[in-house]
Design brief:
This protein has 460 residues and is mostly beta strands. The chain is built from three helices and 32 strands. The chain has helices spanning 2-10, 381-384, 448-459; strands at residues 72-77, 84-89, 96-97, 105-110, 116-121, 128-133, 140-141, 149-154, 160-168, 170-177, 184-185, 193-198, 204-212, 214-221, 228-229, 237-242, 248-253, 260-265, 272-273, 281-286, 292-300, 302-309, 315-317, 325-330, 353-354, 368-369, 388-389, 397-406, 409-417, 425-430, 438-439, 444-445.
Length: 460
């Protein structure tokens, strides 16, 4: 799966939201027919285009928008050669790159107040959930595991984030606090669950599920209860998006043989087809006033971001870039950027990888393994563990507490503090074995040069 991920990045893959789901309340029958996937392999974090890809048609001729779109739109693009998060005004102006690292940064979603963006990145080895300020500053990691975590969706009250993870084998929907704590699994059982979308009152979550073989749209309450099926069609229905006024759910479907945009009431009634193109229309996101919908579409062979009116009569193309633009996320009603944001500085190659084990470094039984004694360098973090940094790149300050003996070997127990940290963290490390270290959960990797200096000092 990891090999597939990097192969598809290399060939400038096309992203698509997959389908799937299940709820803890669902009654599962042991005789259920196993899932039969279409010719394309759907994956949560990264997939190729579905089996409905058709010969692209020219950009449809439609009347221009009658209203000025408000707010900003975040999206992902490989225009720079790697997959990064960008932002632009809702009229397509002031396109700005927000991320710049060696990993793939995808699936942006806004906080309710528009101050932050949550997204997915594999910058530390596996797809995890990260959060950053709306201008790309202060990136921090929320999930720390070796599985695929994706499709984050911020709750309307700003307190929790719904997301998808395959840590149990199939893709399921989870909740966590906005600092990554308090993880709770909402769906379980047969099939895969994807693309959570909150109702504006925060009481319901719409999602796509393959519990009945093909993908359909469901909703459940915020606790994973009261499962209700909203669509029932032989074609695949997926990537639901709840309108901000609470009246409708946009989704995409292959009901006419191609992937097009549809609307329905929140009870599944009054389904209306908005687009009728022999192309791929995907990943809807509503404007704050519920009058417009941003989509990704390949009308001209490559995916670009368009906005269409909620009655389907007017449309405007927003992106004209070299790569593929996908996964638009419309912000709350933020003011337009007066100028493009500064290009972010490239993140240097990391000296270590982040540990998926939450006990790594925090216990005497699972210490950081590098033969380097902090007593040689005093209390300065720049001299003790220079390859490790705080969650946002802060320099560590290290205090040696004591030496601890275990199984005839001595280990160092240290107290670690850094800027904006309220309480010290206790870490243990092994001064006898030389292995390239990992970053404990809550820390990040620093410069490879500093790491090599540390190893050289330790050995010689």
């Amino acid at each position: 799966m990891r090999k597939l991920f990097y192969l598809l990045i290399l060939w400038m893959v096309i992203f698509i939201a997959a389908c799937g789901a299940d709820s803890p309340d669902a009654t599962l029958s042991p005789e259920k027919t196993p899932i039969v996937y279409p010719t394309a392999t759907y994956r949560t974090f990264l997939t190729i285009a579905p089996d409905n890809v058709a010969t692209s048609t020219p950009t449809p001729t439609m009347r221009p928008l009658r209203i000025q779109p408000q707010g900003r739109i975040a999206f992902q693009s490989n225009a720079s050669g790697s997959l990064d998060i960008y932002v632009m005004n809702a009229d397509g102006s002031q396109v700005s790159r927000l991320t710049n690292n060696a990993g793939a940064d995808v699936f942006p979603a806004w906080s309710p107040d528009g101050s932050r963006i949550v997204f997915v990145s594999d910058m530390n080895g596996s797809p995890d959930i990260f959060v950053m300020n709306a201008d790309g500053a202060k990136i921090s990691q929320l999930t720390h595991d070796e599985y695929e975590d994706s499709f984050p969706a911020w709750s309307p009250d700003g307190k929790t984030i719904a997301y998808v993870s395959n840590r149990d084998g199939d893709d399921k929907i989870f909740l966590m606090n906005t600092d990554g704590s308090g993880v709770k699994q909402l769906t379980s059982g047969f099939g895969s669950d994807d693309s959570p979308s909150w109702s504006p009152d925060g009481e319901w979550i719409a999602f796509a599920s393959t519990r009945d073989v093909n993908s359909e749209i469901y909703k459940m309450d915020k606790n994973g209860k009261n499962l209700i099926r909203l669509t029932n069609d032989p074609a695949a229905d997926y990537t639901p998006a709840w309108s901000p006024d609470g009246s409708q759910i946009a989704f995409v479907s292959r009901r006419d043989g191609f992937t097009n945009l549809y609307l329905m009431d929140t009870d599944g009634e009054n389904v209306v087809q908005l687009t009728r193109y022999k192309s791929t229309v995907e990943v809807p996101s509503w404007s704050p006033d519920s009058k417009l919908i941003a989509i990704a579409a390949d009308f001209e062979s490559t995916r670009d971001i368009f906005i269409i009116s909620s009655d389907g009569t007017t449309m405007q193309r927003l992106t004209i870039m070299e790569g593929e633009e996908f996964c638009p996320a419309w912000s709350p009603n933020l003011p337009y950027l007066a100028a493009a944001l500064a290009e972010p500085t490239a993140v240097p190659e990391a000296a270590c990888v982040n540990a998926g084990d939450p006990t790594y470094g925090f216990t005497i039984d699972n210490p950081i393994r590098i033969g380097y004694d902090p007593r040689d360098q005093g209390s300065s973090g720049s001299g003790c563990m220079p390859w490790l940094l705080g969650p946002q790149g802060q320099v560590l300050d290290i205090q040696l507490i004591e030496e601890v003996e275990k199984d005839g070997l001595m280990y160092c127990k240290v107290s670690v503090t850094y800027e904006d940290q309220s309480d010290a963290v206790i870490l243990y490390f092994d001064t006898n074995r030389y292995e390239q270290p990992k970053a404990p959960v809550g820390f990040t990797c620093g410069s490879p040069v500093e790491y090599l200096k540390a190893v050289t000092t330790a050995r010689y």
